[in-house]
Write the structure tokens for this entry.
Amino acid sequence: MKIDIYKYTNYKDFLRDKIASEAPSIKGLRFKIAEFVQCQPSYLSQVINGKPNFTLEQTHLANQFFHHDKDQSKYFILLVEMARAGTRDLREFFSEEIKAMQHARFSLKKRIATLEEIPEGDQHKYYSAWFYSAIHVILSIKEFQSSAKIAQHFNLPLELVIDAINFLESIGLIENKNGVLELTKRQIYLQEKSIFIQRHHINWRSQALQSVEKNLKENFHFSNVLAISKADFLKIRDILTTALEEANKIIGPSKEEAIYAMNLDFFSL
């Protein structure tokens, strides 16, 4: 079982679960960890189950033992520093740093390297209406290489479709190769702090509402209200973010046959 350090706000819980997950395949794991971080196995048990804490030097060695990358190492050090903090203010300081790193962990731009942004000066028009991105994507399907077919499929005026295609070509998102329109950028990303992010979400939630009204069996819509702990909220949010990351691995090489829209919301009330 893969243990994700970013799901933890207590390094002792992380160590306990990490050891439990790897111990079956690594003989004498606790002894090896203790030896590597330069302490007795009995002291390691006290750290995990009692009041003592790792020193920062032992924390650094533990990062090396678990082969943590730079971000994971920083996060683990923050967990230890919060546990070692002697005042409430200091604990809150480290807690905020931990939350910031957890938040950064959910950034799709950081986790999906293939995502690109369109030129900032052209974002206003591109995100002003849903059909710009819809036309952009549907042009990747061969049978929709015609303005007339796109207009018919989306039930849009032909003049509007032609204008949208000219706009997409002018900003370099598509190009005309021997009469065939091809995408130059397949997956577009908009930063969460962008002034256009609200309009982008509203555009596609509006389309989702229309899809709900159509009630087609092939479509999937799910709504629920639940009461859970704040810690479990973070765990579920990470599961959903990871699912999007995994879905992107399928979307990338997938053959373009039909166009779909995907919205995901998970928020506090």
Observations:
- The two ends are 33 Å apart (CA to CA).
- Residues 113-269 form one domain.
- Residues 230-251 form the longest helix (22 residues).
